[in-house]
């Protein structure tokens, strides 16, 4: 068996510890005689799985008791409009940092008034716009951000001002990569398929007091946070396998990594090595404003499309998978999520050095 060095943007690498534990429990989960995938979501075994996953995530992220944790379906793309259906009364202020906010703007406009408070579009989304309170529309209910832009490799290091407004954040590509102060947010969502497990489950963390904002008579049940919260994410059949894998990933973060402070240190070391090498190289460039660089997604180019193609092809032969940049921007992108080891990053840098030498 050969496992590749996987730099995929999502679905992405999963810690080997998690995969092996899932493998060991695959045919007979804890003496139940069946796999988690074959189990009723109403069973005592599954109740323990979902309760443990929630409790572990609560401990890891230090989520206060006045916040609910939901495990939903429909990906980040459903959250683009579900937040508006549940929270928007007068309007939304959205900061545009590329693809994932562009889509949120488009969807939320179908539901209500949207004010784009700032955008880094004119510079091809290479930075995070710094906004002031005055840039916000006084009448909106919330400020919406994508905290880490997976495609452009940008990351908020400081949250935007939002006095008198809620803060809603898409943490799909940075959740659990570092500690965050959950109390600074009103709603966080994240698809699991980058840092938390397989595709198919979306984590939503929201203040309980927000559950009563929407008119429940007008909201389809599946799109109501309140309905899911009241049913403990079991209003309908939840994505059982995904929730189990999120639970194992949380267990790995707690017991093997030792918490999010440690995870952050490892991630910072990985990212620093890669950015330092790129910045000192004569071949590769990363165009993102240094202070806005992502810890998780590192796009880079050679400046020559043909050479980029050659890089991707040769990298593949060397066991480096999914290094091609997003189709909308081209070039390369190394997604160095939690499960991507320091060894993998070192291997990538060695390959980049060799390629640079050969193509100087
Ligand atoms: N938000 C971010 C930051 C993303 O990177 C993605 C997907 N890559 C999405 C939202 C959309 O998620 P999904 O494909 O799960 O709908």
Automatic annotation (TrEMBL):
Subcellular location: Cytoplasm
Keyword field: Amino-acid biosynthesis, Aminotransferase, Cytoplasm, Pyridoxal phosphate, Serine biosynthesis, Transferase
Main localization, broad class: cytoplasm
A single cellular component GO annotation: cytoplasm
Cofactor binding, note field: Binds 1 pyridoxal phosphate per subunit.
Positions with a binding annotation for pyridoxal 5'-phosphate: 76-77, 100, 150, 170, 193, 236-237
Molecular function as annotated in GO: O-phospho-L-serine:2-oxoglutarate aminotransferase activity; pyridoxal phosphate binding
Pathways per UniProt: Amino-acid biosynthesis; L-serine biosynthesis; L-serine from 3-phospho-D-glycerate: step 2/3
N6-(pyridoxal phosphate)lysine: residues bearing it: 194
Binding locations of L-glutamate: 42
Cofactor: pyridoxal 5'-phosphate
Pfam families found in the cross-reference section: Aminotran_5
GO biological process, one term: L-serine biosynthetic process
Enzymatic reactions: 4-(phosphooxy)-L-threonine + 2-oxoglutarate = (R)-3-hydroxy-2-oxo-4-phosphooxybutanoate + L-glutamate; O-phospho-L-serine + 2-oxoglutarate = 3-phosphooxypyruvate + L-glutamate
Aminotransferase class V domain ranges (all copies): 4-348
EC number: 2.6.1.52
Cited InterPro entries: Aminotrans_V_dom, Aminotrans_V_PyrdxlP_BS, Pser_aminoTfrase, PyrdxlP-dep_Trfase, PyrdxlP-dep_Trfase_major, PyrdxlP-dep_Trfase_small
The family this protein is said to belong to: Belongs to the class-V pyridoxal-phosphate-dependent aminotransferase family. SerC subfamily.
Function: Catalyzes the reversible conversion of 3-phosphohydroxypyruvate to phosphoserine and of 3-hydroxy-2-oxo-4-phosphonooxybutanoate to phosphohydroxythreonine.
Assembly description: Homodimer.
Protein name (database record): Phosphoserine aminotransferase
């Amino acid at each position: 068996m050969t496992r590749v060095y996987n730099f995929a943007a999502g679905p992405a690498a999963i810690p080997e510890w998690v995969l092996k534990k899932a493998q060991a429990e695959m045919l007979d989960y804890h003496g139940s005689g069946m796999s988690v995938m074959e189990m009723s979501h109403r069973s005592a075994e599954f109740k323990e799985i979902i309760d443990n996953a929630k409790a572990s995530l609560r401990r890891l992220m230090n989520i206060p008791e006045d916040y609910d944790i939901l495990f939903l379906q429909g990906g980040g793309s459903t959250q683009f409009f579900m937040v508006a259906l549940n929270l928007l009364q007068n309007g939304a202020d959205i900061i545009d940092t590329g693809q994932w906010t562009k889509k949120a703007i488009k969807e939320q406009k179908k539901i209500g008034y949207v004010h784009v408070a700032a955008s880094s579009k004119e510079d091809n989304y290479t930075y995070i716009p710094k906004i002031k309170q005055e840039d916000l529309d006084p009448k909106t209910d919330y400020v919406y951000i994508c905290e880490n832009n997976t495609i452009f490799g940008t990351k908020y290091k400081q949250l935007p001002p939002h006095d008198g407004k809620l803060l809603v954040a898409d943490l799909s590509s940075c959740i659990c990569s570092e500690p965050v102060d959950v109390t600074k947010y009103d709603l966080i969502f994240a698809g699991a398929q980058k840092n938390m497990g397989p595709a198919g489950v979306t984590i939503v963390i929201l203040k309980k007091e927000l559950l009563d904002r929407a008119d429940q008579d007008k909201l389809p049940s599946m799109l109501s946070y309140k309905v899911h919260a009241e049913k403990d994410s079991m209003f309908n059949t939840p994505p059982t396998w995904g929730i189990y894998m999120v639970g194992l990933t949380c267990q790995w973060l707690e017991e093997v990594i030792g918490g999010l402070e440690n995870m952050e240190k490892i991630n910072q070391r990985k990212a620093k090595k890669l950015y330092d090498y790129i910045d000192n190289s004569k071949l590769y460039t990363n165009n993102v404003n240094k202070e806005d660089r992502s810890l998780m997604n590192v796009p880079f180019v050679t400046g020559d499309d043909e050479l980029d193609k050659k890089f991707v092809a040769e990298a593949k032969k060397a066991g480096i998978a999914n290094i091609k940049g997003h189709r909308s921007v081209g070039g390369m992108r190394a997604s160095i999520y939690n499960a991507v080891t320091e060894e993998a990053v070192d291997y990538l840098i060695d390959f980049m050095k060799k390629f640079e030498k050969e193509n100087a």
